[in-house]
Design brief:
The protein is mostly beta strands. It is 0% helix and 30% strand. The strands form three sheets. It has a six-stranded parallel beta sheet with strand order 1-4-7-10-13-16, with no helix packed on it. Strands 2-5-8-11-14 form a five-stranded parallel beta sheet, with no helix packed on it.
Length: 158
């Protein structure tokens, strides 16, 4: 399936994200082409190819993501137990996306997969394809801000 940008919301029964709520997601997102995210047709910015608020015990695998204006994948709102594996992030395909500028150099390429909060998530065996002029480390493009998620076996190709 070809998609432009997806927001996933798991509806909780209360105001807190408790362990018994983790069973609400269990999504499998597999074999899709995400065609980039940037400025929407209405003029509103939508920066992420895939954003969850939250996602629990889910798998994102074997997808292709074209360049987005910000992170291709952003997990927030206490996402737990989600695995991102065997995906291709092809940032040589622009598709008209203007990267968000922050004044931090190659910020776009340091923020492809972002675990904002939550925990126990992992990013393994993913590939980031970059233009030859961009120098990036293997796991440097995966931002882990939640303290307990992991990244391993990821690679950069040109």
């Amino acid at each position: 399936m070809d998609v432009w940008g997806v927001d996933i919301f798991a509806v909780q029964s209360g105001s807190a994200y408790l362990p018994d709520d983790y069973a609400h997601s269990r999504a499998v997102i597999r074999n899709n082409l995400f065609k980039g995210a940037g400025l929407g047709t209405s003029g509103d910015a939508y920066y992420f190819n895939l954003s969850s608020e939250p996602l629990f015990n889910s798998v994102v695998e074997d997808n292709t993501f074209w360049k987005s204006a910000h992170a291709s994948i952003k997990f927030t709102k206490n996402t737990h137990g989600t695995v991102v594996r065997n995906n291709l992030f092809d940032y040589t395909v622009n598709n008209g996306v203007t990267p968000k500028t922050t004044g931090v150099g190659d910020y776009l390429y340091q923020n492809v997969v972002r675990f904002f909060d939550g925990g126990g998530n992992s990013a393994t065996d993913n590939t980031l394809k970059l233009p030859a002029a961009i120098n990036q480390t293997a796991d440097g493009w995966i931002q882990i801000q939640d303290g307990s998620s992991t990244a391993s076996g990821n690679r950069v190709i040109h």
